[in-house]
Amino acid sequence: MKLYVCLAGTILAAATAFGQAGTGTITGTVTDQTGAVIANASVTAKNTDTGIVYPAQTTSTGNYTLTQLPPGTYEVTVMVTGFKTYVHSKMQVPAAQVVREDAKLEVGASGESVTVTAEASLLKTETGDLAHNVNAESLVNLPILGIGGANSGSSGIRNPYNLTTLIPGVVYSPNSTLIVNGAPASTEAMRIEGQNMTNHFVNFAVQEMQPSADALQEVAVQTSNYAPEYGTAGGGLYNMTVKSGTNQYHGTAYNYFVNEDLNAAYPFTLDPAGNKFRPRNRRNDYGGTLGGPVVIPKIYNGHDRTFFFFNWEQFLESSNITFPLTLPNAAYRSGDFSAISPNGTCSLCAQLGIPTAPLAKDANGNPIYANEIYDPLTRNPANGTALPFAGNIIPANRLDPVSLKIQSLFPLPTSNSLTQNGSGSNSSNRNTIIPALKIDHSIGSKAKLSWYWSRTVTDSQYSTPNGNADGLPPEITNARGTFFHYWITALNFDYTITPTVLLHLGGGYNQIRGYDDAPYLTFNAQQQLGLSGFEQNRNFPYVSGMVATTGPQAALGGMQSVGTAIGIQGHPIPQEMPTFNANTTWVKENHTYKFGMEGYLQGSVQRPFGAVLLSTGTNATSLPLGGLNLAGQSIGFGYASFLLGDYNSIQQSAPADYHLGKQQWSLFAQDSWKVSRKLTFNYGVRWDYGTVQTETYGRAGFLGINTPNPSAGGRPGATIYGATCHCSYANNYPYAIGPRIGGAYQITPKTVIRGGWGLVYGFVPDLNISPPLVGINQPGGINPFVSLGTGAPIPQPVFPTLDPGVYPTVPGSTNSAPTAVDRNAGRPPRQNQWSIGVQHEFFNNVVLEASYVGNRGVWWTGTGAGANLGLLQQISPATFAAYGLNPYTNPADDAFLTNVVTSPAVIQKYGHPLLPYGGFNGTVLQALEAYPQFATAGIFGGAYAVTGAPTGKTWYDALQVKGTKRFSRGLQATATFTWSKALVNTRQDFFNPDSSTKTLQTTDQPFLFNANIVYTVPKLFDHPSALSWAVRDWQFGAFVQYGSGFPLTPPSVTNGALNPLSLVNGSTSYMLRVPGQPLYLKDLNCHCVNPYFDQVLNPAAWVNPQNGQWGTNALYGDFRAARRPQENFNIARNFRITERVNLQIRAEFVNIFNRTYLGVPSTTNPLAPVSHNALGQITGGFGTINATVPPHTNTIPTAPTTVNGTCSSANALCGLPRTGTLIARFSF
Predict the structure, then answer these.
(1) Among candidate residues 132, 206, 216, the one with its CA nearest the CA of residue 173
(2) What is the mean pLDDT of residues 1210-1221?
(3) Spacing of C-alpha 178 from chain mean position
(4) Backbone φ and ψ of 259, nearest 5°
(5) For 881-911, how does the pLDDT look when each residue is reduced to its tens digit (9 = 90+)?
(6) Is the pLDDT assigned to residue 1148 strictly greater than 90?
């Protein structure tokens, strides 16, 4: 880290490599009255706020270009001997855009002038790119900057990235989803003041490093066909410019206030008194800005030269989060499980629907009952038998003392229920601050210098859902804090070498630090539990599996998970990024050439703390026998296993300190060629080169497919390390060359055709390959377990290790695996982009543009976009056939795969144990895998996907229409419409790499319309009066969005073990549709669905594929969730104290009409009946929206961050009720 800091400081001090900011350009042609071009004319653009002048000169063809202009208002002046001076005032220059200003000079003395005051045309006549600009005033005045997690993301503070909702072709949800033109989520690139600030650390949470909304001057979002100087972006490029000081002091002060009294109640939710629930909600977002000239009385006068701008914003939230808890009752705590099994009293069997008849018999002819717990000390693995505890009660002398000490920390239940029988709460306080400072300085007439610094700091100990807050006591809670600290600095330097040659340099540095400390950090296992073997005393061990989450046992209770999990406890993970780039602009005749480079170094120093994970379950108290048909019931019990001190596995992660790093470099050359006064042609090329993220000292372990594994009898497949193999796990890709072409042709003074094509490369994704840190104690076999009660050790991992046999950690077991990295993981994603459109100006302030936008993306990696289609552990039908098995159509063969390789059944079939190597004690299924020594998830080949496999492809085609009404007569408005189709590749047959096919993206939204409007009532009368004062200066703002529902996930097959597609990668295979059957029983958009009693999806519309036949994993365009309109509104009154001083009081509402956004219908098993409670209300089942909440609870329904974002959690509300904010803003 220190190395990067020093490097960044050296770069900034030396100014040897700097980068462009999000600036604008003015270009045009100077002619006389006859149309003849005028060469060598002096052209200047003066920023009317700062007085800073930017010079240029026309070429021999009369053309000029003024680049690197900070967004703002300018006065353009053209002077040449023999002609009157041409002046155009009040010209608005947006960020990252080109404004055309042609000057026609009149003969006369230069002392005379011709002044033009009309605003520049909204037509874009100089480029073919698709870009959308939002200025600060629009951002602040529109009702899109709500505060709190649901409106802005986990930082809670106003989120300027919410402007994304104003742009066509996007799917956006704060803290979750940002998709531009069908590209995968979180592939966008961020720039501020010209420097890269893309979040590679938590890439979906872009707001964690956001600037303050009031600090921004303008944001340009470039979505397609942008110039070669911009790149390293997959899903759009955000170019942000910060405000600067001016010659006059100006500033703001504001407060955004939220209280639950401004909100509507949560539907379908009751408080303890049985009334509708309106949770406590106290939020404030306050701050201010101040900018102006740097003046030190009698020492320095910075007017027209040196300026400052300072911003401070702070968000404070205080709320109380209440949670239902599942806690063990008195009987469970003593080891008495007699009430839930016929092996005991079975006193709760009738109430809970537990069958009393035997489910099966064991090899000795003994009956097997539901929820029967077996004594693990009586196991006989040879015939799969064990003796049950008498009466289903564990004797007191068998209860593990460590487990009893852990149990003593559990709260006591407050009701007789087995589940949700208690409650807990956390006080959720969140504090976010964003200070910022910008200094601008003009060094003579040729040089400009700008420096920017900002921090974004978010601190919160308890939050939900990402913070895992659960209401348990601090010692044993799952909660992890959100402590996210980010800072950035940027330095930009412009120098006019000649009137036609401009040098621009810039550099920056940004750093992210993320902490997620648990609330209790002084736990000592030896002293408090009598448990030794912890490598670091800090957090309580994570204990899970004490309660079932699915199946019949989910209703039997136990204890929810406790402690701090591996990988989410307090570990500073800084990401630091020195950034730099440079370019030169040369205006020659009809051409504006630009050449440059940009790059960044990305480092990450990770220091995770050690942690212990105790995973229990039914294994220890079940039978050592696989393939039992228990009619959907279970034997063994997780909480009973916990009391015995028995666990399915015990893990410990080692305290560590490792370093990851990568680089990104780019070169570009481009030209804007004015072919004629009507036609401009843009062309260029960009080369991107990114390196694969690696561990600096070669300690990251990855799979060597041919390396002998000493822990698996020398079988190929071991962990290798860069430090010992002197190799890399992936290749860098040097051929990311992206040509770009585009242009604009002005058919008439009011109409322009614009278009372009180009190849755009994104950044090489982070792999986050870490050294082996986790030791696992987990035996093989059927229902295996390890026992702390009988002295099983907690594993002792070592950091660093370069042991090729580190996995499996226990010889013969299959408990973990090294990361398998695709050799092409260094290949950046590529988008083939194109667009063609028409723009027409109806009036001076009204323009409409319609464009066809298309792109084809390839080489996407990650978890979406068809990525990771390559799997290492898949087992083909041919392999099964070689061993005389056909598990796809033969249920007996399917059951046979669960036998341990040394079992009598295997020896009887093959005449010997099916051992892939000596000491192996796994199942037949595991033995047939390519790397049986490694554990994988799923069945029939499991997962073991290849990390970084660039196999994802996307297709996007859209008609995008945008209408803009520029502010005039008190009104400004924008409306967009998108008609699109977004596809992604998926594989129907995982054994056939060429079977990739297309399916809808989960965020495909064919129709999307949004509109925003701000109207200020002007002064209606010329003379002052009470009526004039009362009706003027009212301001109204609205934002609406209406779109198609997102695709629903079809139901998964229920004959999964006999369906080939579901047998690899834990892959989902969907049922087939039944021809002629409607998909819906009720229209999801009818506003007539009663979630208490209505089943909305038709279970008869779906059927399993035949055994041994492929299902499908494609989505359907006509199977969609409900539409979720977004309607926000505000009303304000401006009190104009003086011409420059104003006080605004505003009320703002999200979901103004208080629509109820019901959850996504459940699309689980359509063959299972719908369940009901004693009142006849639906509690679950296919096609139901379970909004039923038990009475007298404070349970808050799950809600997404935005209404139009994807809502994937079934049986929950998918949007907040109406919420209100009161706002006071003072400005001068």
Answers:
(1) 206
(2) 74
(3) 7
(4) -140, 145
(5) 999 998 877 888 888 888 888 888 899 999 8
(6) yes
Q: What three-state secondary structure class fits 704?
A: strand
Integer CA distances (angstroms), 69 to 23, 55, 504, in order: 5, 11, 11
Residue 567's pLDDT is 65
Q: What is the pLDDT of residues 618-627, one digit of tens each?
A: 999 999 887 6
Query: Cα(740)–Cα(729) distance, rounded to whole angstroms?
Result: 32
Q: What's the number of domains the chain is made of?
A: 1
Q: The tokens of 1208 are what?
A: 């994937």
| Res 1001 pLDDT > 70 | yes
Q: How far apart are CA 565 and CA 518, in angstroms?
A: 10
Reported as type and span, the H/E element at residue 451 is strand 447-460
Three-state secondary structure call for residue 285 = strand
Domain for residue 104, yes or no? yes
**1056 Cβ contact list (under 8 Å, min separation 6):** 939, 1062, 1063, 1069
pLDDT in tens, 545-560: 999 988 899 999 999 9
C-alpha angle 370/373/376, rounded to 5°? 140
Contacts 24+ apart (CB under 8 A), 74-77: 74/26, 74/45, 74/46, 74/47, 74/48, 75/45, 75/46, 75/48, 76/26, 76/43, 76/44, 76/45, 76/46, 76/101, 76/103, 77/42, 77/43, 77/44, 77/45, 77/46
Domain membership of residue 334 (yes or no) is no
Phi-psi region of 980 (alpha: psi -120 to 50; beta: other; left: phi over 0): beta
Phi, psi for 9 (deg, rounded to 5): -65, -40
Taking the CB of residue 889, how many other CB atoms lie within 10 A of it? 12
Q: Is the separation of the CB atoms in 251 and 1217 below 8 Å?
A: no
- Average pLDDT of the chain, as a whole number: 87
Confidence at residue 689, expressed as pLDDT on a 0 to 100 scale: 98
Domain CATH number, residue 79: 2.60.40.10
The pLDDT of residue 1196 is 40
**Per-residue confidence band for 815, with pLDDT thresholds at 50, 70 and 90:** low
Do 193 and 96 form a contact (C-beta atoms < 8 A)?
A: no
Q: 84 and 105 in contact (C-beta within 8 Å)?
A: yes
pTM of the model: 0.88
Can you give the pLDDT at residue 9? 42
Looking at the chain, the whole-number percentage of residues with pLDDT higher than 90 is 59
- Measured CA to CA, the distance from residue 38 to residue 102 in angstroms comes to 12
- Number of Cβ within 10 Å of residue 827's Cβ equals 24
Q: How many CB atoms are located within 10 Å of the residue 669 CB?
A: 16
1088 CB-near residues (< 8 Å, 6+ apart):
1082
Asked if residue 701 is part of any domain, the answer here is no
Interval 922-957: pLDDT, tens: 888 888 888 888 865 433 344 567 788 888 899 999
Give the Cα separation of 359 and 368 in Å (integer): 6
Among 145-159, 377-391, 806-820, the range with the most confident prediction by mean pLDDT is 377-391
Domain housing 102: 17-131
The residue-averaged pLDDT of 459-486 equals 87
Could you tell me if 876 and 978 are in contact, meaning their C-beta atoms sit under 8 angstroms apart?
Answer: no
Residue 1056 lies in a domain: no
Report residue 744: phi and psi, to 5°: -140, 135
Strand (E) or helix (H) holding 891:
helix 891-896
Please tell me the least confidently modeled range out of 440-454, 747-761, 1061-1075. 1061-1075
Average pLDDT over residues 1020-1037: 82
DSSP letter string, 601-650: EEEEEE-PPPEEEEE--SSTTS-S--S---TT---S-HHHHHHTTEESEE
Q: What are phi and psi of 79, to 5 degrees?
A: -130, 135
Q: What is the 3-state secondary structure (H, E, C) of 1056-1125?
A: HHHCHHHHCCCCCCECEECCCCCCECCCCCCCCCCCCCCECECHHHEECCCCCCCCECCCCCCCECCCCC
